[in-house]
Write a structure and sequence with these properties.
Distance between the termini: 39 Å
Order of helices and strands: EHHEHHEHEEEHH
Largest sheet: 6 strands, mixed
Shape: flat
Number of helices: 7
Helix content: 40-55%
């Protein structure tokens, strides 16, 4: 599991971070709940992948990555949205504390796997954002789902949210590089504009590559 270990931004209030630790401690219990939800959803993807492998000798999932937000990232997001540091607020308002990234070979695999997940009776869709059909202005493409799933504790059943990002290999490669570029603080504004234009061109080129590879796959199947 990849834990979010970004450096504490200067904009994050030390006072709010102190309140987080006072009210929620080190966050172990809260993070444990999200970790359980991640394991539940990750297992579902692994089972689906295994099923397709047995039935069709084909794996629609290339890679599965999971991550939990750090307390610093949680506090930073609460602060930006002017929300109080409360467990109930975190669970109700923050949808991306627990995250899964599913990398698929082809775009059709993304929708296939997403639909198979949503058809399961213990997965409840909260929100969907399709940046494949409707890319962001900078060229970013991905399918985002917010789902709720139950985790079964010793004396209770608790519903937890998980953010799922579906990408092709090309989409993930582009997004990873774009993320690194965006957080290079020493890059000047003019150079950033140039890079943004170049990255947008690369995003469009990778989308065309995905489409061409899809056509090649369809021809092979036919």
């Amino acid at each position: 599991m990849l834990e979010d270990k970004r450096v504490l931004p200067l904009s994050v209030s030390q006072e709010m971070l102190a309140i987080f630790h006072k009210k929620i401690g080190d966050g172990k219990r809260l993070m444990a709940y999200y970790c359980c939800a991640l394991m539940e959803v990750e297992t579902k993807f692994k089972v689906l992948n295994q099923q397709f492998s047995l039935q069709q000798s084909y794996n629609p999932i290339e890679t599965i990555k999971t991550r939990l937000k750090s307390p610093e990232s949680i506090v930073g997001k609460l602060q930006r949205r002017n929300l109080p540091v409360e467990v109930e607020v975190i669970e109700r308002e923050l949808n991306d504390v627990a995250g899964i990234r599913v990398i698929c070979p082809f775009i059709t695999d993304i929708y296939l796997v997403a639909n198979c997940l949503l058809e399961q009776d213990d997965i409840y869709m909260v929100e969907i954002k399709d940046y494949i059909k409707h890319p962001k202005e900078n060229g970013y493409r991905s399918l985002h789902l917010i789902v709720e799933t139950p985790i079964f504790l010793q004396n209770e059943k608790k519903m937890m949210k998980v953010e799922i990002q579906f990408r092709t290999i090309a989409m993930d490669f582009w997004a990873s590089l774009e993320h690194r570029m965006r957080y290079k603080k020493e890059i000047g504004e003019r150079l950033s504009d140039d890079l943004a234009a170049e990255l947008k061109y690369c995003a469009d080129a990778s989308a065309k590559l995905d489409a061409r590879m899809e056509k090649i796959k369809d021809r092979i199947i036919e």
